[in-house]
Specification:
heterodimer, A: about 240 residues, alpha/beta, six-stranded mixed beta sheet, four-stranded antiparallel beta sheet, B: about 290 residues, alpha+beta, Alpha-Beta Plaits, 2 domains, about 65% helix
Chain lengths: ~240, ~290
Amino acid sequence: MARPNSPDYDLYRSGILVRLTGVDAGYGASTVLFGVDFEARAGEVALINGPAAAGKTTITHLLRLALQPRSGRAVIVGTDIVRASARSRANVKKRIGYVAENPVFIEQWTAFDNIAMPLRMAGQKPREYADDVRELVDFVGLGDASDLRMEKLSGAERRRVAIARALANKPELILADDPTANMSPADGRRVVRLLGEMRRVGAGVVIASQDEGLEECAPMRRWRMERGRLSPLDHAAPEAAEALE
Amino acid sequence: MKNALTGVERALFWTLAFAAFAAAAAGLAARAVDRVAAQYEVQRSNYAIVRVIAPEGAAGIAAAEVALAQAPLVTSAAPMTAGRAAALLAQWGGGDVAPADMPPLRLIEVELAQSEEPGADVGGDIVAALAQGGVTAEVIEAPNDAAGGGLSARVRAAAFWGAVAFALMMLVIISLAARSLAARRREMVTVMCDLGATRSQAAGRVADEAAVLGLYAGLAGGALAGVAALIVLWLAIPALSLDALRTMILPIDFAPIVAAPLGAAIAAGFGARAAAGYFHEQAARLG
């Protein structure tokens, strides 16, 4: 994180968890995101809608620090990720919960152990994290399935495990890439409602999805992604909002 | 060591153990060669045979014995008996020769102390000492650097460096084999990367597991090599007693057995760390 009294830290203190300004990003020779301006705040849900191959997954990769911006400025959880050291980037990553479109798990472990993974990595002992993990299991409605090995779980259950694991470290920023993919509409809405609940504990939530109509599940700031360009739907762009403030 | 001895890990364990066994066995074999070569060198440089030319007969032999007693490095000198000569001939491939058939011998067997001066002309010194005692003689077998002296040192060096090279090869094999453990843990590395673990944290976890596996495999391999060495010793020396064994084995002889688990742990840890680091890099970089 930036030093106290630096502009990046002030941004974070003011509740802005993510600010992208004129960011280009891509893979190899191809550019996927063009001049993206984006903002996500603590206690709010940002929904990025768009068709397939619009760049939604790429922006989540950028926000979870798996991809570096090619140009522009990206401040995430008070850290300018272009200038940050590897250690600072790792520290930022620990404060981000990420629900991938196709989450990777340790298949031989139980759902409970997979959910506990971030806590184990933080050095906690089983007796220290058992209650917290049980609470997460109840929160996502996994029930007795938490004691099954991952390979035995259904797609919807795996998504719940992914959400619980993403929340285990009490992250400040939660990213979900197409969280309703391959799920029934009812299951998909339940998952988005769960994610939306996290705004109540002060976390910022960013959901990238093809699914239209998710705004029914929770109050959200909506963005539209088309061919790598992002535009605000029902609110002012970050710069304009700042000018109004 | 959770699940370390099941499935693929069990196969990996025995692969590492076999490589550690081979490395330790090579080390023990090198120690054996070293001990035999050293022993041979001591025996070779301690022995000479003198042929008395004049005076002839028993008087010449007696005078030579007196003169040799005064010679430097000579610890003992004894005339070669017909029985001893017949035994030597039989040993050198001369067939069965009866001692009674042997001609009169004018040979004296001499035992020598180790010369501290490398390349010393021990034969010349013996001839000079005999001449001073009025005996004309020639040394027909003596320590001689030009005729095999130093061979033992070369054999010992070859055994040592050969074992080192072989052990290094086995460590490379252990290191490569341990990479398969990292491949098995690839999804864990990917998950850890997604959860914010640095390369060294993710790779370190896999490396620790591989190192523990390598340590246990090295212990098993080293112990098996030790048992194999004992069996070989007992086969080579059937009358070997435990007491004789205790005096025969030096602390340095345990070096290959002690080095096997340490080397296996380090090599397995390095191999797994490198592979896990690569997988972390793959998971962390998309663009």
